[in-house]
Amino acid sequence: MEAKFSISPKAEMVNKKTLIVAVDLGKNSHMGYCRAPDGREVKPFRFDTNRKGFDFLWSTVQSAMAKYGLERAVLGFESTSCYGEPLRDFFMDKPGVVLVQVNPAHVKKMKEVTDNSPNKTDKKDPRVIAQLIQMGNFLTCIIPEGAPAELRVLSQARDSQVTSRVQRSNQLQDLVYKIFPEFSSVIKDPLSRTGRYLLSEYPAPGQIVSLGLERLTQIMREKSRGKLGSSQAQRLWEAAQSSVGVKQGVESVCLEIKLLLEQIEGIEKAIEQIEAQLLPWLEQVPYSKRLLSIPGIGPVTVAGIIGETAGLERYSGQKALLKLAGLNLYEISSGKHQGERHISKRGRSLLRRLLFFAALNAVRKNGIMRQTYQEMVGRGMKKTKALVAISKKLLQIMYALARDNQDYIHNVSELRKIA
Questions:
Q1: For the chain, how many helices (H) and strands (E)?
Q2: What is the pLDDT of residues 62-79, one digit of tens each?
Q3: Total Cβ atoms within 10 A of residue 404
Q4: Cα distances (Å, whole numbers) of residue 373 to 319, 363, 409, 419
Q5: Using CA of residue 148, residue 137, residue 34, residue 20, what is the dihedral sign?
Q6: Would you tell me how many other CB atoms lie within 10 Å of the CB of residue 416?
C-alpha cells in the first residue's frame, strides 16, 4: 500500500475564512474563546469537561462560523498534560475543524508581550493562544489512530514501568548499603538470581552468618547455576561477620527490602505483559517489518517510534520528524560570535530517548553505525553529540524504509541514497 505524505501548510489553515478557536485547558472545566479574521469575537466562556460542555463548545463554534460567514475553524490548545486528549478526540472527526497545538513556553512569553504584564487570568490565556494561532506559531496535531494509537499507549506504559523499576532498584541498593555495605563487593547485581534470593531470605549480615559457610556456599552455587562458588561465599560470609552496617532498625529495613523486591517483581511482570501486547499491534503496521530489518533494532524500539510519531507515513519529510523528536538544530549567534549548535529538545522526549538507545546499539562492535560513529569521534566530535547524530540518521533511515517500503540495505552508498 502506497503511503501518502502530506501536511497542509499553515498558510492554508488560518485565512480570511477561518475561525480561530482557543481553549485554555483545565481539569474540571476549560475556558474557550472564538475570534474571526476581522477581529470580531466570542468573549471567553467556561465549559465543563463532559459531553454537555463539549457539545456547548461545538454549538458555539458552529454558531460563530455561521454568524461571521466562515468555512472552517482552527481549534488550538497548549500541548501540556492529558487534559486536552478527550477534547482532541471529540473534535477530530468534526467537519471543517483542524486541531493544532501551541507551545506553553510561547504562551508564557506572549502573555507579557500582550499587555506588558505577567498577569495571568482564565480570560487572558485563551486570547493569547488565539493570538499565537493567528501568527502561525502552532503545530498540527497528528493524532494516532488504530494500531499506532495502541502502540503509543503501550510504549508510554512500558516506559513508566521501566522508570518505576529503576527508582525501586535505586531504593533497594540504598537500603542494602545501609545494613550491609559490603554485600555489593561480592554480589555486584542485587537483582541477579543470587542477589534476589539472599536479599529476600537473608538480607541482614547476621542472617548470612547464621547460615554457616557450607549452607551459604550451597545456596550461592545453586542460585547462580555454578557461576558463584566457595570463594565468593567465603568472601560474603567473612564480610558479614565484620560488617559495618547499622545495627539499629535492621528488622524494619529488612522488611522494606523484601517489599521492594516484591514490587520490582510485579513491575517486571507488568513489563512482560505490555511487551507481549505490543507485538500483535506492531504486526498490523505494514512497514513495521521493514524497520525490524535494521540490525540491532528490536520490536520495543520500533513499536515506540511508530506510536510516538503516530505513524511515519503521515509526515511529508524528514525535517518534520526530526522536529517532532526535538532533534532539530539551533544556534545562538550574534555579530562576530558564532554560537555552538545544539538540538532543540522541544519534542517528544520518549521518541528521542528510544532513538538514543537505538544509537547506542548501532555503534557497538559490529553495529551498523560503528564506522560512522568512529569517524565522527575521530574528527573531534564529542561522543554524546556523535550519538545524537547517529540517532538522527537512524530516524531518517526508518522514514526512508517506510516511505519506499523496502528493507534495510547494509551497503553504505545505497543507504545514503534512500535516506
A1: 19, 8
A2: 999 999 999 999 999 997
A3: 13
A4: 22, 6, 18, 17
A5: negative
A6: 12
Residue type for position 115: D
For 298-318, the pLDDT digits (tens) are 999 999 999 999 999 998 888
Is the pTM higher than 0.70? The answer reads yes
The CATH number, out of the four listed (3.40.50.300, 1.10.287.4070, 1.20.1050.10, 1.10.3720.10), of the domain defined by the range 151-275: 1.10.287.4070
Q: How far apart are CA 94 and CA 111, in angstroms?
A: 30
Contact yes or no for 193/186 (Cβ under 8 A) = no
Return the C-alpha cell found at 209: 552468618
Q: How confident is the model at residue 10 (pLDDT cuts 50, 70, 90)?
A: low
| Other C-beta atoms lying within 10 Å of the C-beta of residue 63 | 12
Tell me the three cell numbers of residue 17. Answer: 475564512
Which helix (H) or strand (E) segment holds residue 79: the answer is none
10-141: in CATH 1.10.1040.10: no
Q: Which contacts qualify for 184-188: CB closer than 8 Å, 24 or more apart? A: 185/235, 185/239, 186/232, 186/235, 186/236, 186/239, 187/236
For the chain, the domains span 10-141, 151-275, 287-331+341-418
Residue 26 burial (C-beta neighbours within 10 Å; 0-12, 13-18, 19+) = middle
Residue ranges of the alpha helices (H) in 92-189?
104-115, 124-135, 147-179, 183-186
For the residues of 3-64, what is the DSSP string, one character each? PP-----HHHHSSTTEEEEEEE--SSEEEEEEE-TTS-EEEEEEEESSHHHHHHHHHHHHHH
More confident residue, 113 or 179: 179
Amino acid at position 275, single letter? E
Task: Say how far apart CA 35 and CA 339 lie, in whole Å.
Answer: 40
